[in-house]
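During the first year of the project, the team set up a workflow for recording each protein of interest as an amino acid sequence followed immediately by a discrete structure-token representation. This format lets reviewers and collaborators read both layers of information side by side without switching files. As required by the reporting guidelines, we include two representative entries from the current panel. The first entry is reproduced here exactly as it appears in our internal archive.
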Amino acid sequence: MDLKKYPALTAVVGLLSLACLGGIGLTVWQGLKYSSNKSSLTNADGKLQRLLRSDVAPTEENVKAAEANLASMQAYEQRLFAELQGEGGKNFNVDFKDGTGDLKAILQESSTKLTKAIETAGVRIYKPR
């Protein structure tokens, strides 16, 4: 077949060939980008898991920093509850120093109470499954 006789067909075939090669190139590019992002995500997840398993040394400086953070969280929590409950609402106090020393359990209980207060105020909370 003499392609010089059909220049329109030759142009269409050429354009389709270029489009096909471009599609293959973009597919390879996205595949490389995907594998790069996947490895970055795996690295970040590994770092997070190591941080979760690590323990902070209970030095004097760390204890003071934790107490300062606790005081600021309590102040913020009280302001938040005051906003949610309005002027005439009930007082909601969380005692972080109950003597058990289990800060994680106390924070989880506080979080549960805060969630219930927010839901009672009519705010919908997204809960992933």
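The second entry, processed by the same pipeline in the following quarter, appears below.
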Amino acid sequence: MSNQTVRLIRFFSTDQKNLFAHFIQSNLLKKWMTTSEMNPVAGQTYRYEVLTKPGASVCVGHFKEIKTYSHIVMYDLITTDADGKVLTTNIESKFEFIPTSGGTRISLVQTGFLNTEEANRSEFSWQHRLSRLNALFNDESSGHLESANY
């Protein structure tokens, strides 16, 4: 059994405060990540549907740590697909928000994947979600993106 890790770094042309808000405010999360209500508070549990194709996957876990404008650590206890098939268990995700010239860089490190297939699926999913988020900052006029299939 192996322990695979996913590492992603993305640049966003918005300030650290605004980008962080898109990770902790339910109304902003609904624009790019989930259809579910979320209340990101350290220790708070969550259950959310990931914005994907019809029959979205569902993540259940808790927020381990939230440091305003700095980082968020989430712990997914289980992720299932639309049919209830378990995709992953016990995955830790750490998002760091790093101010840079002209915007903010996000570093995402996810640990705990049992195999390469799990890690690749999660990396693809987060690349897609972060692209949706980036599109919000590049298309301020719409303020909403339709759910995309992948």
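For the second entry, the following points were noted during internal review. Strands lie at 4-12, 45-49, 58-67, 71-80, 86-100, 103-113. The first strand starts at residue 4 and ends at 12. Both points are flagged for discussion at the upcoming steering committee meeting.
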